[in-house]
């Protein structure tokens, strides 16, 4: 736990301090929304390797991190980026080429696993997936699991309801807690000590944040310490969970950040096209990721006209009539 | 009025949705079907998303369930824990209709959206369950969208991602699942339903210009066609509302 009054640092330092080779990492956001993309790009630039990644449905962030060669193991519910990639492209390629070991859960199960981690209980029950291959087929063998102190020996287990028949339930599936070494979330507002305010859907960000040993927060707007203590019913993550606060405007770009900007359909379409071809994807990494030093360099490449087009309308929180074809 | 197959599919699904249904929808045509029901025949239905948004206004069609468009003018913007609890608890869950899609379906309505080939080293990898398996596990009714192709209507799934009736009438009970299962499968050629007793798929309707034989030809397993009737095409009013109120930007329909 870090109680410092000022946890503000630059992104390079935050990633270099907390995101190490072989670390267990989780990313906030969902498909094409509020993925911590600036942090993902910095991890790729720092060439961190063999990350064990936990995701429910992160989409773009997960796909780019896999494409950047940073991920060796993945526990996931869904790898898709909406209409732009119904299956994430580099994820698909990496699985089909056996470059990535994958373990499949459901979205609810992944969320409960983060919640269990946040609660400090070894597992939580649910009534999902009995009779399916989510239960029957394992991506990581029991042998492999036993060699890692960071993984439970079993993927999941089914148990008879100990309160026999209560709530008309005969059996439950127990899913094990996740406590990542690091979680990274991107939020609209944070103060220097780390209190966070997310606008719109929170997805599973708060559970992921509170389950982690270390938490990096990137934010659109950085506030002085007392400013978010008014209207604090709108805050989801208190400072006690936070290790680093990084001010990165457009830090979720090219994914959306509610009330700030929409996803960029042009970027996501261009990415999907390049991601399908190893040569083009290599050029993309060289030019757009390694060729930029900061997120602001990437935004400059997109240009002010497109950034204006995706700017959120103050009433709806997204870019009305944005060309999304 | 001329119509496309996509429009036929969306309207066919919309007609199954009733007032007071809570509609769980995913991306693409399932989103369009939920919006069509709300705008045409079930104005009191409630659209909700696994991301935690409930009763979104949807002035523009979202391109993902995480699209910021689902967050505007909602009853609550929560998170994944909220949405799945809504379906798992019987108080609200018994009102939920799921709309799902998949790469493969079998005769008991079980779905594969994970892999083709071995799980350990697949030929094709798909997105995976997401919330699909959760919805299919929890809710009493679901609608499945599929393209009618032999490789998609298979005798044996390569991976069972989301439960239908599992291995038959007692499948869900034996496994410990909440009662439920798919109600119908809507394809580009017709509509399949599930027999009350055997829980096996049968052909309920074929679209105008399509024959039951042509449909059987696109399936690896055979189904009963004796109950099949010609489907009612979308009306001019349905089509106008679908095009103008649900997808005026033609992001899904085009």
From TrEMBL, chain A:
Q: Which GO terms describe its molecular function?
A: CoA-transferase activity
Do you know which InterPro entries this protein is assigned to? CoA_trans_fam_I, NagB/RpiA_transferase-like
**UniProt key word Lipid biosynthesis:** no
Per its record, how is this protein called by name? Glutaconate CoA-transferase subunit A
Which sequence ranges form a coiled-coil region, renumbered to this chain? none
Tell me the keywords, alphabetical order. Answer: Transferase
Automatic annotation (TrEMBL), chain B:
Q: Which SMART domains does this entry report, sorted A to Z?
A: CoA_trans (SM00882)
Q: What is the designated name of this protein? A: Glutaconate CoA-transferase subunit B
The record, for Pfam families, names:
CoA_trans (PF01144)
Gene source species = Desulfocicer vacuolatum DSM 3385
Q: Which InterPro entries match?
A: CoA_trans_fam_I (IPR004165), NagB/RpiA_transferase-like (IPR037171)
Identify the SUPFAM superfamilies for this entry: NagB/RpiA/CoA transferase-like
User: PANTHER family per the record?
Assistant: ACETATE COA-TRANSFERASE YDIF (PTHR43293), CHOLESTEROL RING-CLEAVING HYDROLASE IPDB SUBUNIT (PTHR43293:SF3)
Which molecular-function annotations from GO does this UniProt entry contain?
A: CoA-transferase activity
Q: Which Gene3D superfamilies match?
A: Glutaconate Coenzyme A-transferase
Note the superkingdom of the native organism: Bacteria
* Keywords, in A-Z order: Transferase
